[in-house]
């Protein structure tokens, strides 16, 4: 059996709560070479040793900036992110992507300014280390820990802070100006995350294996590739549908579906 497409990773949140040894078994079963991990996993002492001797590369590392609150101490927020950037650079990770922290009582503009000021030294550190530091778009259901809830807002924030972007298609596929925003976002885009949505599903987080739902993923991926996107596609699979199928089985099926799509598109 051949492995998945070389541009695919399966985010470790798919296997939330499992140990590094269990995760390594999943990576081996899936045949993936690109890893998408949590910052807590990156900072485990065993992680660099796990990479040693294997043909793994770290595609992306997730980090929750400022402990999830933009009202938190800026020095502590920067110190925590700086530690992640250093560790990412040490293992050759390509991208660290973030939720920004929640705005609390601030207006969006005030919170955006605060985030930009807080993250600026880390943005410079990441650039010097050759690590893409990115913000992603996420549903307003996560407003307690994040600021950018449309792709438009994520692009605006990335431009303000001079950061890269992680596009989570699940959270923006239905936006009316998506194609325009993707064109604007692509020069900054360091990671694209894929999953599907079945219309009418209210069982949060309601993600589905690509091909099981209604998101026009192939058209989105085709636009990204035509626009010059050269990086990875990360499969982020979680929720009741994934639980029912089984995490590893769902991940394998997603790799097969999206791998075939990428082959069709000449990725």
Automatic annotation (TrEMBL):
Residue ranges occupied by any Xylose isomerase-like TIM barrel domain in the UniProt entry: 70-243
Keyword Ribonucleoprotein: no
SUPFAM superfamilies with a match to the protein in the record: Xylose isomerase-like (SSF51658)
GO-annotated molecular function: isomerase activity
Keyword match Isomerase: yes
Keywords, ordered alphabetically: Isomerase
InterPro entries with a match to the protein in the record: IolE/XylAMocC-like (IPR050312), Xyl_isomerase-like_sf (IPR036237), Xyl_isomerase-like_TIM-brl (IPR013022)
Name of one Pfam family that matches: AP_endonuc_2
Protein name as it appears in the record: Xylose isomerase
Origin species: Mycobacterium scrofulaceum
């Amino acid at each position: 059996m051949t492995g998945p497409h070389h541009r695919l990773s399966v985010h470790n949140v798919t296997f939330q709560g499992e140990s590094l040894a269990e995760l390594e078994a999943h990576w081996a079963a899936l045949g993936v070479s690109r890893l998408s991990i949590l910052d807590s996993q990156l900072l485990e002492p065993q992680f660099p040793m796990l990479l040693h001797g294997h043909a793994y590369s770290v595609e992306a590392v997730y980090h929750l900036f400022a402990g999830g609150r933009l009202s938190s101490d800026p020095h502590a927020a920067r110190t925590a992110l700086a530690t992640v950037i250093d560790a990412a650079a040490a293992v050759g990770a390509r991208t660290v992507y973030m939720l920004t922290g929640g705005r609390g009582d601030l207006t969006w503009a005030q919170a955006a300014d605060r985030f930009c000021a807080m993250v600026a030294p880390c943005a410079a550190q990441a650039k010097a280390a050759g690590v893409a530091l990115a913000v992603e778009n996420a549903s307003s259901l996560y407003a307690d820990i994040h600021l950018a809830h449309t792709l438009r807002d994520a692009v605006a924030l990335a431009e303000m802070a001079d950061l890269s972007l992680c596009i989570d298609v699940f959270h923006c596929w239905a936006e009316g100006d998506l194609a325009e925003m993707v064109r604007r976002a692509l020069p900054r885009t360091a990671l694209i995350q894929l999953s599907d949505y079945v219309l009418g599903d209210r069982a949060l987080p309601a993600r589905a294996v690509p091909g099981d739902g209604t998101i026009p993923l192939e058209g989105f991926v085709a636009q990204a590739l035509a626009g010059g996107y050269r990086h990875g596609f990360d499969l982020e699979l979680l929720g009741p549908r994934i639980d029912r199928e089984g995490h590893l089985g769902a991940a394998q099926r997603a790799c097969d579906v999206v791998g075939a799509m990428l082959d069709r598109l000449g990725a």
